[in-house]
């Protein structure tokens, strides 16, 4: 599918695999159709979630900087279209007052959620992907210290956790009296990488490196021409 890209990182030893979306604009400029397709996918996840568990309180949508910013906003738009009166907040890495939590595998692991005086019993965490579940688990734990949370819905485009990791998150939430559900497309749940897909990823990675080298050569040439 042209909306999803699974790559190999060479700049983060804590996270070798990478997943990104067309709507994030990390590989190519994102178009309105990219946003519409990703928004439609979130809309289908949301509708299914609301059928399974009805909304009983006002909601706070949480997006994690940086890759969760666009997915969280797309979800905000979908919730707004359904007259759910959503609220939206993003984490930041700046030292400001708020709830601190950790994203261990990130290049910038320390996050702060700028929440002070507020009261939400239902939280929606919207991510591009769930890798191990440790980040959302830590976030839920920290939120529970400040808010009287009853339900957490986690939405993501991909879920790469093992079955043990998935169960651990749900079990932990139950222990602190939170009903936690995870909503992701079946296409990108935990799966083994096959050789053909791996070869495709390597090819895309090589293509990106070649494009980068071309850009660098072009910039060097322009600099030389300016000097002359």
TrEMBL record:
An example of a Pfam family matching this protein is: PRTase_2
- Report the residue ranges that make up the Orotate phosphoribosyltransferase-like domain in this protein: 11-183
Q: Where is this region: Disordered?
A: 208-228
User: Under which name does UniProt file this protein?
Assistant: Orotate phosphoribosyltransferase-like domain-containing protein
What the entry lists under InterPro entries is as follows: PRTase-like, PRTase_2, PRTase_dom
Q: Which domain of life is it from?
A: Bacteria
């Amino acid at each position: 599918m042209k909306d999803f890209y699974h790559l190999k990182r060479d700049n983060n030893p804590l996270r070798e695999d990478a997943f990104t979306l067309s709507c994030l604009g990390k590989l190519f400029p994102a178009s309105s159709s990219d946003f519409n397709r990703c928004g439609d996918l979130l809309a289908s996840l949301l509708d299914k979630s609301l059928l399974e568990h009805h909304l009983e309180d006002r909601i706070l949508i949480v997006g994690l900087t940086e890759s969760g910013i666009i997915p969280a906003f797309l979800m905000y738009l979908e919730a707004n279209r359904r007259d759910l009166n959503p609220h939206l907040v993003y984490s930041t890495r700046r030292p400001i007052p708020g709830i601190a939590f950790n994203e261990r595998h990130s290049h910038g692991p320390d996050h702060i959620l700028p929440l002070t005086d507020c009261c939400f019993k239902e939280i929606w965490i919207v991510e591009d992907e769930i890798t191990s579940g440790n980040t959302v688990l830590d976030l839920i734990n920290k939120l529970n210290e400040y808010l009287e949370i009853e339900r957490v819905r986690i939405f993501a485009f991909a879920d790469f956790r093992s079955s043990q990791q998935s169960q651990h998150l749900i079990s932990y939430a139950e222990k602190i009296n939170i009903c936690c559900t995870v909503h992701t497309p079946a296409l990108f749940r935990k799966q083994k990488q096959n050789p053909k897909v791996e070869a495709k990823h390597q090819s895309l990675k090589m293509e990106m490196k070649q494009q980068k080298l071309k850009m660098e050569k072009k910039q060097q040439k322009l600099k030389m021409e300016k000097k002359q």
